[in-house]
Amino acid sequence: xxxxxxxxNALTGLLTSQTAMRNTSNNIANVNTPGYARVDTxxxxxxxxxxxxxxxxxxxxxxxxxxxxxxxxRTTSGASEAETRADLLDRVQAQFGSPDDSGSIFAxxxxxxxxxxxxxxxxxxxxxxxxAISQAEQLFDEFSRLSAEIRTVRAETxxxxxxxxxxxxxxxxxxxxxxxxxSRLHASGGDVTGLENRQSQLIDELSKYxxxxxxxxxxGGVIVRTGDGVELVGQTLKTFEYNASGQGGLNAxxxxxxxxxxxxxxxxxxxxxxxxxxxxxLDVRDHELPELAAELSELAAGSADALNEAHNNATAxxxxxxxxxxxxxxxxxxxxxxxxATTVAITNADGxxxxxxxIDFDAGTLSVDGGGATPIGGGTVGDLVTALNTALGGSGSAxxxxxxxxxxxxxxxxxxMLQDEANPSDRGGRGFSHFFGLNDMIVSERPAFFxxxxxxxxxxxxxxxxxxxxxxTGANGTVRDIDVTVGGTxxxxxxxxxxxxxxxxGNYGSIQFDADGQLSISESGGNSIQLVxxxxxxxxxxxxxxxxxxxxxxxxxxRAEAFSVADRIANNPEQLSLAxxxxxxxxxxxxxxxxxxxxxxxxxxxxxxxxRAFDAAGGLNSAQTSLEQFASRVAGDIGLRAARxxxxxxxxxxxxxxxxxxxAEISGVNMDEELANMTIYQQSYNASAxxxxxxxxxxxxxxxxx
Length: 706
Fold this sequence. Notes:
By secondary structure, the protein is of the alpha+beta class. The chain has helices spanning 3-29, 66-96, 105-121, 126-188, 193-207, 277-312, 381-392, 432-436, 491-498, 545-549, 553-557, 567-570, 599-606, 627-667, 671-705, and strands spanning 39-48, 51-62, 212-216, 222-226, 231-233, 239-241, 258-260, 266-268, 322-324, 341-347, 353-360, 365-368, 373-375, 396-401, 404-409, 414-419, 442-444, 467-473, 479-485, 509-513, 519-523, 528-534, 563-565, 611-614, 623-626.
């Protein structure tokens, strides 16, 4: 071999050794860099016309396993989703507290009924009454605070969705830009491993937000898709679009996250986001938090309703001069739809009976002071009010205005109510006074229950042309809003319009009344239906369709923020009704109210353990159970959600760590191996350098000889 051949071979060895050492140095420098895949330098022999011509770099490649890379991406997405859900649910669960925490909502509920029981033991004690009232105020203040906290977390979650999408778009842009750089270097035969490592790290970061999978591009780089195959990065750049509203309202109509191509085409990407932080945020915002709000609201409404049930069948001593009920949303022309019997009594200041009106709804009659029965004179709410006003005579009066019933005593007297023990009055599952809220202890500006007692035959009372907007979310994530225009006169007409298959929701579900006059939505075909818009107002009541029937999330789940102790009771503890009418004899002039009577207070206390109906809410099915047991179910569900999320987080993180460890076994940097390679490459470099030096010296010697 000629000296030139020797020099050429030695030079190739020198250059390839330099390249190998540089790559090995990069490996060593990135030994602890997450997502870095070590670079392997392969050599190949050079030859010309069958004669050896040294060595050259065959390939420089990242050592990766496509299977392990995909596994790491999937588990990273799962861990990020689980961690997001767990963090948010832990925060909410901490606000509720545990049942054994004296400051928790569940302990406050128990304490409220305990304080009422203590007040009932000594009805004359103003301090005992005040303590019970104060505890009830704290209970419902806590309901309101927790509901507001859920709204706050929901608003923050929505804001985080907007922030995450900004990060996703930044990552997609950089991945796309690196694709272009790799393509250019690939075409010119350059080393693209550095760019590929950077791109891999970006894809790892992207997988924290949304589940992704990759495949090699035809000209280098990668194609990035969602787990179910929607392309995010390819030949063109695609971006996520979303306008975070920052709203925490339970009825908030959040816009969908869309994926827009450079040509302007956009699709709803939410159904294709199967894991990652975005999936966790969406699930918590759209499902977990509204469900927890619904459970809290049902517990708050059940607590208020239980107290009001007993309080409406009790009385203060002396009885209040007037009882003004809640806004029921009813109109005077609505069918009475009461069954059973009840008594309205006017008492004197000394507790003696001044007037007694017994109402028999089954017979449709009234009797005054034990006298003969007279017909109510019609079957509507207005007819009853007219008949009652007549029956009270000079002792009192009754009126019905804008959905609210009022009964007043005359001449310094007071008004009391008592259910018939054998055949208690009932409309939609509540007694006469309870349904109208005449002696409510806990009040609210919005309906606290939705068993209206209405039926298809009643006039709907809304103005033609008003609209209801239903949002239908399909099983595939498609969203459409359907506006239903109010028409006709009866609830049957309105229901038919809503259930119409052409202009209503009939292709996706329907609404119907139950026996208690509660409307509910039945969904079909995997669709979800929400009432998100409502311009209606019933008669002079000012109540909308959604408020009356609780068909919107805001109307149903927002109730927890609206309760408070009635001002007349909060400002005057003597108005707490701890007694009951004693109508054993029931003759005018007999004493029917006693200052030491505690039967009303004991009845109030017993409502904690008395069975009552609860509607389905959040993750809880409808049930006939006690308030105490329902509170335990709510506490259990909240705790279970948080515990399950914590368990999922621990499992997902362990799985992600294991997948990353497996990937590192193949792609990670082994210091011993790299140092050994460095020694080999250094020796090769030194040998090539010595050979070049020897050839140079030989050349110099030959030249000197010449």
